[in-house]
Amino acid sequence: MRYAMAVDTKKCVGCSDCVVACQTENNVPLGYARDWITETVAGTYPNVEIEIRSERCNHCENAPCVRCCPTGASHIVEGGIVLVDHDKCIGCGACIEACPYDARYPHPDGYVDKCTFCIHRVEKGEDPACVAVCPTHCLHFGDLDDPNSDVSKAIADRKWKVLAPEAGTKPQIYYLI
Amino acid sequence: MRNTTRRDFLKISGAGAGSLLLAGPAIKAFSQIAGDDTIHPGEKLHRTPTYCEVCFWKCAGWVYTDKKGRIKKIIGNKDDPHCNGRLCPRGTGGVGMYYDNDRLQTPLIREGKPGNQYFRQASWEEALDLVAKNLDKVRREHGPECVALFSHGTGGKIISHLLKAFGSPNIAAPSFAQCRGPREVAFTATFGEDVMSPERTDIRDTRCLVLIGSHIGENMHNGQIQEMSEAIDKGATIITVDPRYSTAASHSKYWLPIKPATDLALLLAWMHVIINEELYDKKYVEKYTYGFRELKDHVKDKTPEWAYAITTIKPDIIRKTAREMAHAAPAVIVHPGRHVTWYGDDTQRSRAIAILNALLGSWGRRGGFYVPEKAHLPKFPGPAYPKPKRSWKDAFPGKYKLVNEVLSTGICDATIPNPEMGCNLKAWIVYGTNLMASLPDQEKTLKAIDNLEFLAVIDTMPMDIVSYADVVLPECTYLERYDVIRTSPHREPYIALRMPASEPLYDSKPNWWMAKELAKRLGLEAYFPWNNIEELLDWQLKHVGSSLDEMKHLGVKKLKREYDDLYFLNGEDYEFNTNTGKIELYSTELANEGFDPMPDYTPHPEPPPGYYRLNYGRAPMHTFSRTTNNPNLWELKKENNVWVNPKVARIWGLENGQYVWLKNQDGVVSSFPIKVRITERIRWDSVYMVHGFGHKERQLSRSYGRGASDSELITRIAEDPIMGGTGMRGNFVTFLTEKPGKEVAS
User: Fold this and answer.
1) What fold does the segment set B194-371 form as a domain?
2) Do B51 and B122 form a contact (C-beta atoms < 8 A)?
């Protein structure tokens, strides 16, 4: 089993619904976020292109945050989801430095926090909150080992890319381009 | 700007005995209420049905509360066609409206003499007595017609009922003259019916969607976004006409970066191509329309080459896009837009859009415009409304004959004493609309307010307009109240219930309770014969085969279509509600009233050197000026910025992120500075900013002074002679890189 997400940049409008839905689902304190929107603009008027992306933890197969964690708080569970055990975390911030995607933040309660792929929902067979709320249906989630999952189907017949492939982290968020 | 004499602009936190107690630092108070440290994801939550009130789309959803009754999250109702289970960021962030610690907490009453006024807290009893006393005074001295209501949103319906019972027809919503009015008048003149809300656009099945300045995706009209996304999946062609590279433009096959204020020339050229290349739907045009020959003659000279010189859109692109539309027809939508009060000839531009759709045969066709239906709930038995002797229109003899809604700007005009006008309004109730941001020409609004004998404001938040009120009535949010049943039109008629998920916080009350209490004090009890709103709703619901109990479990319910098919039947005869019974390409109604029966292009003023046209629009996470203080949504966008083309930035030596003040051609300077965003996404002859920022009310602790207000800079109004709409794209601004000498804000 290999959980992954695909983000369709041809449909995302950057509305940030994924950000709010994550905050209310996971009690992310105001002022912090587990997911966010980026926009890049290329070209000169009127030959312009933009790419809008909903970004979050890439749940890397080769996760630098897990390797550098001194207490074992950062760990990988079945399905490849990278999690932080709040009780083991001492908030040293090594993982924040190590993450090439800037996906982690120091929670005011003293531990490091980030996207969990909404594992509490996924365990019940539901989609993560961001996927379930997206009005443009631009987020697809599922098991890459299952060819019939939403995410497998989404990346099967589309061009895609991952972020910072040069970091060698084997990220599991795929951007459809 | 601010020259009121009767009413001081009051800070709600202002000094004075018994003035409002402040809730303390924003974030701290929020987390005290939210208590988020004790909640864990996945905890069992209780759900209550609602429909959203953060914007007019009114998506149905479920409000989730924890064991202690605290609101945790709001999720869309899967059975609702407005949202299909997916709320937009504002709906999801609706929780912030409830937890906003800047909310109005108690009734407030203005005290003191001009120059030394303050608000003091009052009991509901005292505040309602005072409102009733003042309304009664106006009724006795001037007649009930001299009271006007400005209203926006669901809660306004029961307040409107009170005003009609009181005997006044002067009920205005800025959503007409400042927003969608031109398109409703134009489509009614053409098809005999308007576009309605939610729009009857069949986007999910369209093969070609044409957006004229409409920025779907930045305006978060939920169902439309979802359907546009579905259309993209199905390979529909999107054509976006906008001087700005909008999000929609970036998802389009064609982006036409038009010169601002020239859309009508493009629309006429498209008609020219479609008629001259015989691409129009011949059977449809012959069977259903009136005036084709006149139209053909009218656009004879409107060649793409003619339009090129005006719009800067190349002739081959105009031809190619016209052919794309015709190729997709009738599954094509030239979108009517929503906020369409731009240049004063907006009804005519909307007419051109309507005519283009008629030529393509898309009205009443799959993938074009469907035939909507709405649920009809019976009126609770009660006396008939008294017949008003006068209306706001009496102030404008011979004008606005085609207008069937009330002009909010007309209410302002009819409030300012004028020997030539017969109707001087004396008192206003303002419900749920921040007039300082929703109306252009603030000077006129303030002049009207200064001439009022009485102003009552009902709101959940201390919006700028609240500062001018004599009495402030704090309403609880939509999450804490019942409201009337939602019956908006859609492909099938649906009903939706809103019920409280929590007791009202502070000393706030629902609109229906206020209306009923005021009715009691005004001798109008007979119009409110129900004991509470549950009784009214249950009675109404039982008449359409449901009940309050059932709706508490369902949230939304689909009723059966009563009339019509969703689309026109092939070859069937249809009678349209126009003078000729046909779709009027040539409008006999406009001709009778002395207006152009077919739209024509007229040039509009252009910016003087060093000035840039002020275009404004929306951000997906905010609604008007009402959400900028919502803690959850404020997090996403704290201030607006002014989009500037890099060429312009170079001329002015502007840097990205620098703060500037904007000054318009009338010398009005923005009260607050705005951040520069240098971007290739905007033309060099215009600038762009998101509407709704630059609040002047300090009690809005997060949004006060953040960003600039476009409304404040809109002083040149191009009035639409057909329907009184206020064209608001005629202002030009320049940059002040240093703080202007005079302190404008106070």
Assistant:
1) Dimethylsulfoxide Reductase; domain 2 (3.40.228)
2) no
CA of B568 vs chain A CAs: smallest distance (Å): 29
Cβ–Cβ under 8 Å, residues A84 and A112: yes
Q: Which helix (H) or strand (E) holds B282?
A: helix B282-288
Distance CA B638, CA B243 (A): 25
Owning domain of residue A32 = 3-176
Q: What is the pLDDT of residues A120-174, one digit of tens each?
A: 999 999 999 999 999 999 999 999 999 999 999 999 989 999 999 999 999 999 9
Closest Cβ–Cβ partner in B39, B250, B684 for A27: B39
Pick from B63, B92, B220, B222 the residue to mutate for testing the A interface (most A CBs within 10 Å).
B92
Q: What is the rounded distance in angstroms from the CA atom of residue B508 to the CA atom of residue B106?
A: 6
In chain B, what are the domain boundaries? 194-371, 612-736
Secondary structure, 3-state, A1-58: CCEEEEEECCCCCCCCHHHHHHHHHHCCCCCCCCCEEEEEEEEECCEEEEEEEEECCC
CB-CB under 8 Å, B220 with A135? yes
DSSP code of residue B527: G
How many other CB atoms sit within 10 Å of the CB of residue B140?
A: 9
Per-residue confidence (pLDDT) for residue B114, from 0 to 100: 74
Residue environment code for B705-723, b if the CB has 16+ CB neighbours within 10 A, otherwise e: bbbbbbbbbbbbbbebbbb
Per-residue pLDDT tens for B303-313?
999 999 999 99
Q: Looking at this protein, which amino acid is placed at residue A175? A: Y
Chain B interface mutation, best of A24, A87, A114, highest count of B Cβ atoms under 10 Å: A24
For chain B, say whether A16 makes contact (Cβ under 8 Å). Answer: yes
Identify the architecture of domain B612-736 in CATH.
Beta Barrel (2.40)
Question: 3-state DSSP: chain A helix, strand, coil percent, rounded to 5?
Answer: 20, 25, 55
- The Cα–Cα gap between B168 and B152 comes to 17
Question: pLDDT (tens digit, 9 = 90+) per residue, B18-27?
Answer: 333 333 333 3
B217, A39 Cβ separation under 8 angstroms: no
Terminal CA-to-CA distance of chain A, rounded, Å?
A: 25
Q: Is B636's CB within 8 Å of A43's CB? A: no
CATH code of A113's domain: 3.30.70.20
Residues contacting residue A70 through CB under 8 Å, at least 6 positions apart: A90, A92, A94
Measured between alpha carbons, how far is B656 from B676 in angstroms, rounded to an integer?
A: 6
pLDDT at residue number B12: 64
CA terminus-to-terminus distance, chain B: 12
Residue B288's H or E segment, with its range, is helix B282-288
Which tokens is B426 given? 């004396």
Q: Could you give the number of structural domains in chain A?
A: 1
Nearest to B632 among A25, A30, A132 (CB): A30
Question: CB contact, 8 Å: A138 with chain B?
Answer: yes
Q: List the single best residue of A113, A123, A133 to mutate versus B (max B Cβ within 10 A).
A: A133
Strand ordering across the sheet containing A3-8? A139-143, A3-8, A173-176, A160-161
Q: Could you give the CA distance from residue B59 to residue B86 in angstroms, rounded to a whole number?
A: 9
Which residues lie across from A106 on neighbouring strands? Answer: A112
Residues in chain B closer than 8 A to A138 (CB atoms):
229
Residues in chain A: 177
Residues 44-73, chain A, touching B (beta carbon < 8 A)? 44-46, 48-50, 52
Look up the ipTM and state it.
Answer: 0.96
Contacts of A33 in chain B (CB under 8 A): 635
Across the interface, which of B86, B95, B682 has its CB nearest the CB of A24? B95
Measured CA to CA, the distance from residue B56 to residue B478 in angstroms comes to 13
Judge whether residue B40 has pLDDT over 70.
Answer: no
